[in-house]
Amino acid sequence: MGVLNHIIKIDTREQKPLEFTAGTNTQNKCLKFGDYGCEVETPEGSWIDIPIRFERKGFADLFGTMGKGYERFKKEMERAQKSNHKLFLLVEGSMVKVQKGYAYSQISGDTIIKKLAMLEVRYGLHVHYFNNRAEMTRFIEEIYEAVVRNHPNPMHHYASKLDQ
């Protein structure tokens, strides 16, 4: 079986959308949580949502989200959990850069890293750090393509994995 058609959905509120590889199908859509999602066409011709979402955070935005935006972000993670979606947090900056802190934040870099680790344990948030936007884009493309490539019904496969 060949690779199924799929479309990467970009949330309409995403302020600095990533630029995907030429030939990657993308579409702007209002997402209930996360900045990037994906729909795949089944062999029968219907479209289903892959239950994996990516939330992109720029360096300054990460510090704001872990500070004043913390309660809102926790609600976003809860929405993802209730919808049986895996949520990945993609940070534009290495862990070392985050640890050094942000000059315009009263929250230390170490505190941010500890909060992110706690969110990973408590909410199942998958945190990944990237040196640049190109790495981040490649990661999203590779995850979605791996799901599409390896499973004829991605929704069934991931729904069963999420229940475990």
Overview features:
single chain; 164 residues; 6 helices; disordered C terminus
- Coarse shape: globular
User: Low-confidence parts, pLDDT < 50 over ≥5 residues?
Assistant: 157-164
| Rg value | 16 Å
Count of the separate structural domains: 1
Assembly type of the chains comes to single chain
Q: Tell me about the largest β-sheet.
A: 4 strands, mixed
Structural class, from helix and strand content? alpha/beta
Average pLDDT, rounded to a whole number, is 89
Number of helices: 6
Please characterize this protein's 3D structure.
The chain is of the alpha/beta class and 164 residues long. It has one domain: Rossmann fold (3-Layer(aba) Sandwich), CATH 3.40.50.10130. It is 42% helix and 23% strand. The protein is built from six helices and seven strands, in the order βββββααβααβαα. The strands form two sheets. A four-stranded mixed sheet has the order 2-1-3-4, covered by helices on one side. The protein has a three-stranded parallel sheet with strand order 5-6-7, sandwiched between helices. The radius of gyration is 16 Å and the shape is globular. The two termini are 28 Å apart. The relative contact order is 0.18. The C terminus is likely disordered.
Layout of helices and strands:
Elements: E1 6-11, E2 26-29, E3 36-41, E4 47-49, E5 52-57, H1 59-66, H2 70-82, E6 86-92, H3 95-100, H4 109-123, E7 126-130, H5 133-150, H6 154-162
Summarize the entry for a quick read.
The chain is an alpha/beta fold.
